[in-house]
Design the sequence.
């Protein structure tokens, strides 16, 4: 073990629950959340959440949630922008892998969303990962196949069908851009 690793604290979910402010916990390391999302981020994420929430009313077991903590393990807690789950949560937080995760990417969050969270979501079996780039008006959609994310497409005005455990639905990317 390196000298540095011996002296850096390794935090757990129990520690995380006592912290003030907005944090995520990645493999025992605290990661400060970016300042509150800007106007464009809010507008695009709100439109995506509204479409998911409305569309999923037809699917009796699935629902979308906005910025809720997902306790991945004893030392990892992430807060995706939007998730779709098809199981009732056990308690106040998500403890099972969501079916779909949407992350709204900004300059401040790009490395975390495109690399760190990508790897976590892939490892944890998230079926679809959607990286949304509001400034570019494009979303990159990945689907889990044989334990690896495979890029389905870059969507701007496209519609895509998401197939979940008990239902499927069409998401129209053309209506989330301002």
Sequence:
């Amino acid at each position: 073990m390196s000298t540095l690793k011996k002296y850096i604290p390794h935090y757990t979910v129990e520690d995380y629950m006592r912290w003030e402010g907005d944090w995520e916990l990645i493999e025992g390391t605290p990661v400060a959340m970016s300042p509150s999302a800007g106007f464009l981020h809010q507008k695009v994420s709100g439109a995506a959440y509204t479409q998911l929430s409305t569309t999923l009313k037809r699917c009796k077991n699935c629902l979308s949630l906005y910025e809720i903590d997902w306790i991945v393990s004893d030392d990892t807690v992430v807060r995706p922008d939007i998730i779709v789950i098809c199981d009732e949560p056990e308690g106040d937080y998500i403890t099972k892998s969501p079916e779909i995760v949407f992350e709204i990417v900004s300059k401040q969050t790009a490395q975390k969303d495109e690399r760190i969270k990508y790897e976590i979501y892939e490892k944890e079996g998230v079926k679809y990962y959607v990286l949304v780039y509001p400034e570019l008006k494009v979303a990159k959609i990945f689907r889990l196949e044989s334990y690896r994310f495979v890029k389905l497409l870059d969507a701007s005005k496209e519609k895509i069908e998401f197939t979940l455990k008990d239902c499927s639905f069409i998401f129209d990317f053309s209506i989330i851009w301002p």
The first helix runs from residue 3 to 7. The first strand starts at residue 23 and ends at 26. DSSP finds four helices and twelve strands in the chain.
